[in-house]
Write a structure and sequence with these properties.
Cytochrome Bc1 Complex, Chain A, domain 1, 4 domains, disordered N terminus, binds zinc ion
Length: 1076
């Protein structure tokens, strides 16, 4: 679902070390994270996770933990993995044993960077390679990866990635993948399609669960049902849909609609054009995800052939990681691999390098834009280089990664800063080094550019690069980048990604090209020698030649200009319609009758549930495998100088994590939309003595990062919302004094005087919000509904929803007209906020470190003003309750409906988590995704506020989806779940509740629970209720869900055409609001 042109998300910091922090690789993945537990706005509202994380994105300087735009489902890593004993507790895996199982040991190494023993095996009969990595990380990871280079843009690899998870030889049900989603304790479960490979990873901390997942995945990739069943191909790929011969034919298919969504986002369009333009002659010249125009050209035969050719052990690389028995790994694999003979796939799947151009090229294309606003200022320009005709050695790659961070990694980095300060555009796009494919590339781009400035942008970029090559970087900047990189390595904080998966993705980025899989895991030596070179020769001698060779003197450069075209979206719809009309015209009456019959047959099949005996094939855990107790985070509540302090004594490898929380309650409601910009200003404006560049470098040199962001949530049983500003920082324990000094400096000394920088923040934020509206419209719709239903939701929407975007759209002008006024509003926010009263400090580290840092915390607190908690401005604001349709230029919609079920009398019970998960994974998955053709459909229950919402993602439908939502009550009433299904739903819910967390995340979740009054007693109660959920609870919940049907409100983010049609059909059901 989620195409991630990764560079845009991580601000250019994508190479080697920063790859750890990516939320997603550059790939299409099998299901929307928002469809499960991720999603920007999706609150993980179990009593465990508590609270919404809408603004965590702000903390870009936390590469991992806080970059959580897609947080949630991937959130668990071994606490012990970093600090642990190297030796696995199992007996050594001897050559003999491997031999007996059909493998030969190719190489073995102890890798100190990840404290693991890694062994590379070769399966003798097929040549399949296996990396078996052993350590004592309980978060075990398995992955199988095939090289799958496409020859055209019909999306075969992507459709196959979806389809193999739809039933297999041993697991002959509709979607074993979904059964695993429902009922396993997985800490990771998904699949990715890259431009040249397809990856199937799973992770779990429970060994029995882990091997269940492994077996389902192995059977799926080698023996999928989809190669014999055209229905899966039609459902996941594409088919003609015709319900009645008198109606129009339409295209349906999950991937088809997923890609329509991707092709509606300008940033994605630019990323795709870039890749294809840089490599026109090899497999990267086509789109592995599928171009919606080409997907309908794909035949079932081509699809089957592709599987036969590439999904073969000879073309597979398999990864195991964790504390499980290495012999057992080979035993499981040999059962599968022995069934195959060697094939030629490894040869035929080789990626041919793109030869370097001798002269630069230039490409001008159009993208679909909305009709409103100044289109002149909506151009995008991007300069791109293919850096080499072959893969680079690790040393060079590391140096390039470092250079990337120096040039673009932080707001103070010169290339980023100069481009943004030029005022020539709104925000960077697709910028940074990309080294996950065969040949590395580098791009810098700007969006929101006026058409007469395109040339100037190109010149500015080239001149700045020239200047950096000539003058080098200043020492403080180099030191700051070095510290940031070393800190990240030491912390090894992969955030919500299992550590073993992050290592697998790094290793595979070389291994997939038949290079050394061990090398990418070993960074210490090359880093040491790079540092030594910088110390001896100076940074200029290291970095200038790289800029010269790879960029300035490199003729393989493609400049891409994207122009906005308000007609393009509707043009494409017309083209599609014409094609479909021709198809229909070419059909005889019999053909049409046959098509209608086939449509009905497919629909019927999709809606028929698997028989209970088929479901039994998927291995399950029992309730006895589940702990009756919730996981507790050690928390000691005390105070320092009269301020409440929470301490979490956890092993953190000498890193201190600290949060300082201020109450937002006395900030005037009309100032709320300024808050995100206030937070950004604190970190990016500078003080009397320090420019923002110096301040930024200081933070980079002394700490692991500081971020500031608002947090709001309803609180269960209370009328007033919880609304806070959280300042979050981390450093080595020895630098705790610096950390708190810098936090103080940021909060108290930063001056709001830089009008030009503030203007940049406004345009960047606007660009970001516009991107969000197009790419994650479900989040905007959810925020909008929340804002109608409760105060916390209203506050959030002011700071991150459509209201915020509208505010930003008018703010730019205000900055010119009344900067004084804005600047003093920012000061007013600071005055209302900064106070020792109501302040809370949260600290996570080992006990000794916590004690040793107390004095610095005390000093920090003493410096805070003693404002008596100002007159609390409790706002009762909400948006008017009404059904809304927000118009954007898009080919697919986002449809939401929500209501507060507490106001209908529903009493919170733990079973609600089980039931909403079940609704998402069955009713909504089957109707909205499988038969509706949307990329995702899910529901969410925020237990703090009582808001129950339905949302869909990249949805071809509008009213039809609302009808499905309204049918949920009847679905529950008619439900008949057997014991197994119920157990599965309960276990799956516990899997969410017990999400695996790194120590910083444990300390942070504990803070949020404290803020939201979620006690350990309550967690125990809810857990008991979850574990004892019965069919009766499902039936009773139907009434609560019916109240959403009857009294709820609907918000859709959709295309003009679909909204018009909807309003025609249901007499102006929606109030229409134009957004882009
Ligand atoms: Zn997909």
């Amino acid at each position: 679902m989620l195409r991630s042109i990764t560079r845009s998300s991580s601000l250019g910091s994508t190479s080697l070390f920063f790859r750890f922090f990516r939320q997603f690789p550059r790939s299409y993945i099998s299901r929307s994270s928002s469809a499960t537990a991720g999603g920007n706005i999706r609150r993980v509202s179990t009593p465990e996770a508590a609270g919404r994380q809408l603004f965590l994105r702000r903390g870009l300087r936390f590469p991992s933990a806080a970059s959580g735009s897609l947080n949630g489902q991937f959130s668990r890593l071994s606490l012990r993995a970093f600090a642990t004993q190297p030796a696995p507790s199992y007996t050594e895996l001897g050559q003999d044993e491997a031999e007996k199982l059909g493998f030969e040991k190719a190489r073995e190494e102890f890798i100190s960077e990840c404290k693991s023993k890694a062994v590379l095996f070769r399966h003798k009969k097929t040549g399949c390679e296996v990396m078996s990595v052993s350590n004592d990380d309980e978060n075990k990871v398995f992955g199988v990866v095939f090289r799958t280079p496409p020859k055209d843009s019909t999306g075969i690899p992507h459709i196959l990635e979806h389809s193999v998870l739809c039933g297999s030889r041993k697991y002959p049900l509709k979607e074993p993948f979904v059964e695993l989603l429902k009922g396993s304790l997985h800490t990771f479960l998904n699949a990715f399609t890259y431009p040249d490979r397809t990856c199937y990873p799973v992770a779990s901390t429970n060994t029995k669960d882990f091997y269940n997942l492994v077996d389902v995945y192995l059977d799926a990739v080698f023996f999928p049902k989809c190669v014999d069943d055209v229905h899966t191909f039609q459902q996941e790929g594409w088919h003609y849909e015709l319900n009645d011969p008198s109606e129009d034919i339409s295209y349906k298919g999950v991937v088809f609609n997923e890609m329509k969504g991707v092709y509606s986002q300008p940033d994605n369009i630019l990323g795709r054009i870039t890749q294809q333009a840089l490599c026109p002659e090899n497999t990267y010249g086509v789109d592995s995800g599928g171009d919606p125009k080409d997907i309908p050209k794909l035949t079932f035969k081509e699809f089957k052939d592709f599987h036969r050719q590439y999904y073969h052990p000879s073309n597979a690389r398999i990864w195991f990681y964790g504390d499980d028995d290495p012999v057992h790994r080979l035993r499981v694999l040999s059962e599968y691999l022995d069934m195959f003979d060697a094939s030629q796939a490894r040869e035929s799947s080789k990626v041919i390098p793109q030869k370097l151009f001798s002269v630069p090229r230039r490409i001008v294309e159009k993208y679909p834009a909305g009709g409103d606003g100044d289109l002149k200022k909506k151009h995008m320009v991007c300069l791109n280089w293919l850096l080499s005709d072959k893969p680079l050695d690790l040393q060079t790659q590391l140096a390039l990664g470092f250079l990337d961070h120096l040039m673009l990694g932080t707001p103070a980095s010169p290339l980023r800063k100069i481009i943004l300060e030029s005022g020539l555009g709104e925000a960077l796009v697709n910028s940074g080094v990309e080294d996950e494919l065969l040949q590395p590339q580098f791009s810098v781009g700007l969006k929101g550019v006026s058409d007469d400035d395109v040339q100037k942008v190109e010149e500015l970029i080239m001149n700045t690069l020239r200047k950096l090559a000539d003058e080098g970087f200043d020492t403080d900047a180099v030191e700051a980048s070095m510290n940031t990189i070393e800190f990240s390595l030491r912390e090894n904080n992969t955030g919500s990604f299992p550590r073993g998966l992050s290592l697998m993705l790094q290793s595979i980025a070389k291994w997939i090209y038949d290079m050394d899989p061990f090398e990418p895991l070993k960074y210490e030596e090359p880093l040491k020698s790079l540092k030594a070179r910088i110390a001896e020769e100076g940074s200029k001698a290291v970095f200038s030649p790289l800029i010269e060779e790879f960029i300035l003197n490199n003729p393989h450069c493609v400049t891409i200009e994207l122009q906005p075209d308000p007609e393009k979206a509707s043009q494409e719809e017309v083209e599609e319609k014409n094609i479909l009309e021709k198809v229909k015209a070419s059909m005889t009456e019999e053909d049409l009758a046959e098509l209608a019959r086939a449509t009905e047959e497919l629909g019927l099949k999709q809606e028929t549930p698997d028989p209970p005996e088929a479901l039994k094939y998927v291995p399950n855990l029992n309730l006895s495998d589940i702990s009756k107790e919730p996981t507790y985070v050690p928390t000691e509540v005390g105070d320092i100088n009269g301020v409440k302090v929470l301490r979490h004594d956890l092993f953190t490898n000498d890193i201190l994590y600290g949060e300082v929380v201020f109450d937002m309650g006395s900030i005037k409601p009309e100032l709320l939309p300024l808050l995100p910009l206030f937070c950004q200003s604190l970190l990016e404006m500078g003080t009397q003595d320090l420019t923002f560049v110096q301040l930024n470098q200081l933070i980079g040199r002394k700490t692991g990062g500081i971020s500031v962001y608002p947090f709001t949530s309803s609180v269960w049983g209370k009328n007033d919302p919880c609304s806070k500003i959280i300042v979050r920082g981390k450093s080595m324990v020895g630098r705790a004094e610096d950390l708190f000094n810098l936090m103080n400096c940021v909060l108290q000394e930063v001056r709001f005087t830089d009008q030009q920088r503030f203007k940049q923040f406004v345009s960047q934020s606007r660009a970001k919000m516009e991107n969000r509206l197009r790419g994650s419209g479900q989040g905007i719709a959810a925020a909008r509904m929340d804002a109608m239903l409760n105060v916390a939701g209203w506050m959030s929407e002011q700071m991150g929803g459509l209201s915020y975007l509208e505010f930003l759209q008018t703010l730019e002008q205000k900055v010119d007209q009344d900067w004084e006024g804005i600047s003093s509003s920012l000061e007013e926010i600071r005055r209302s906020l900064l106070s020792r009263n109501g302040c809370i400090v949260n600290m996570t580290a080992d006990g000794k470190s916590l004690t040793s840092t107390e004095k610095f915390v005390g000093k920090f607190l003493d410096l805070l003003p003693e404002n008596p908690s100002g007159g609390l401005v409790t706002s009762v604001a909400r948006l008017p309750l009404r059904n809304e349709a927000i118009v954007i230029p898009t080919q697919v919609n986002y449809v939401g409906k929500a209501g507060n079920i507490y106001s209908s009398g529903y009493q919170l019970d733990g079973s609600s988590y089980v039931i909403s998960k079940h609704i998402s994974n069955t009713w909504l998955w089957d109707r909205v995704r499988v038969s509706g053709g949307a990329y995702g459909g899910f529901c969410d229950f925020d237990s703090h506020s009582g808001v129950f919402s339905f949302l869909s993602y990249r949805d071809p439908n509008l009213l039809k989806t609302l009808e499905i939502y309204d049918g949920t009550g009847d679905f529950l009433r008619g439900l008949d779940v057997d014991e197994d299904t119920l157990t599965k739903a309960i276990i799956g819910t516990i899997g969410d509740v017990d999400s695996y967390q790194l120590p910083d995340a444990k300390g942070y979740s504990s803070l949020l629970r404290h803020l939201l009054n979620v006690t350990d007693e309550e967690r125990q109660t809810r857990r008991g209720e979850i574990l004892s959920t019965s069919l009766k609870d499902f039936k009773e919940f139907a009434e609560a869900v019916d109240s959403v049907k009857d009294k709820g409100v609907a918000v859709a983010v959709a295309s003009q055409e679909d909204i018009d049609a909807g309003n025609k059909e249901r007499s102006n059901f929606f109030e229409v609001k134009k957004a882009l």
